[in-house]
Backbone:
């Protein structure tokens, strides 16, 4: 079960990694094959997304998924 606090932690980790990689939300969304608006709500921790999408995001940023889900 994914709580709002867990979603928020995942979103914060995604945002931090994206910013450290020097990428915009739009760039990551495009590389991950996700809509820009959907990616933004994931990053804000407003929705639960699948492990598949988290892996796509991690790949798009160039990090291991464990950096998001740890």
Residues:
């Amino acid at each position: 079960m994914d709580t709002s606090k867990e979603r928020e932690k995942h979103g914060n980790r995604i945002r931090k990694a994206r910013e450290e990689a020097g990428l915009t939300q739009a760039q990551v969304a495009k590389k991950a094959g996700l809509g820009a608006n959907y990616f933004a709500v994931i990053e804000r921790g407003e929705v639960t997304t699948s492990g598949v999408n988290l892996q796509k995001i991690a790949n798009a940023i160039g990090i291991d998924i464990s950096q998001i889900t740890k």
The mean pLDDT is 95. Residues 4-20 form the longest helix (17 residues).
